[in-house]
Design a protein that fits this description.
Layout lengths: L9 H12 L6 E7 H9 L10 E8 L1 H4 L2 H11 L4 E5 L13 H6 L3 E4 L3 H10 L4 E8 L4 H14 L4 E7 L2 H11 L6 E5 H7 L6 H6 L3 E4 L3 H16 L5 E3 L11 H10 E8 L3 E10 L8 H4 L1 H5 L11 H5 L23 H4 L4 H8 L2
Parallel strand pairs: 1-2, 1-7, 3-4, 3-5, 5-6, 7-8, 8-9
Antiparallel strand pairs: 10-11
GO molecular function, one term: 4 iron, 4 sulfur cluster binding
Protein name: Hydrogenase formation protein HypD
Family: Belongs to the HypD family.
Amino acid sequence: MKFLKDFQNPLLVRETARRLEGLASAPAIIMEVCGTHTMSVARFGLKSLLPPTVRLVSGPGCPVCVTAQEDIDAFLALGRFPGVILASFGDMMRVPGSEASLESCRAEGADVRVVYAPLEAVDLARQTPHKDVVFWGVGFETTMPATALAIQAAARSGVLNFSVFCHHKTMPPALRALLAGGELKVSGLLLPGHVSTIIGVDVFRFIPEQFHVPCAVTGFEPLDILLGIESVLRQRQEGKALVDNAYGRAVKTPANPRAQSLLKEVFEPQDAVWRGLGKIPGSGVKIREKYAPFDASNRFREIIAAVPPARTRACRCGEVLRGVLAPSDCPLFRAGCDPSQPQGPCMVSREGACAAAFRFEP
């Protein structure tokens, strides 16, 4: 199969789904790590095609959703500082902080701009030299190279009124923490294909080697996802645990060398706080000293330090991200929390499990 349309072909999808029946004699809980997988599963109704013994659960693969409450509050606080323009991707606009969101802050007079790429924020800073433009760096390894390029571009051009509030996160440490916690005994993992185009496949081999959990790197079309599930179930049946690359048309086993070189040049590892998982060592990145003038955490250190502790919300998004709570089991789901009035990021993000369940599941 060489063409994208093959991975959307209903006949091939049904044929693959039928093959799962012979591999699913024992109960299996498979986590689709990536939020894009979660949305695709819901959108295409894939759960209805699975054997009754197979259950899919969502994981911590929605970058908007795992952003910690205190980090949201800190970014919002920057917008109240005179002369600051906040630049963010659109999917962060309605994520609620303790008291507000970017959308409500803009309604109250904060200068908040939606950008579609970090380089747009650099251009904005170049066009408004009397303002400080702060870009919110949120996302996993897939979006980190674009942020790194923006920092390099600002450095080369001397755009010193541009900075990044860096909350990028890396996926492998989070999966290690999730599996080591043992709260949910998963039978297999569907690993994110787009992240793997940057970091490769080998970086995930600790999962079968240390936790004996079968994995499949897979794409986001219906057939992609079912082939990933088939790989996990076949490994279980054969008593194996490995990382199978079921997305060979896009993912190569080794890491992308150019992307890795770029990330190493601009960022270095640091601990990060994840919603639902807490502080995970080495799971975030910070801007290296070479590019310190473009680090908003340094530039606005006093403002960030003065932000009050995050207020606890009734939203149970953290449990959804760990796979231990289905969206429909949250008492707020459809009862005060919906896309028009989201109480947490899992209902806001287009990759959020709650948003997917609300839109596509009964």
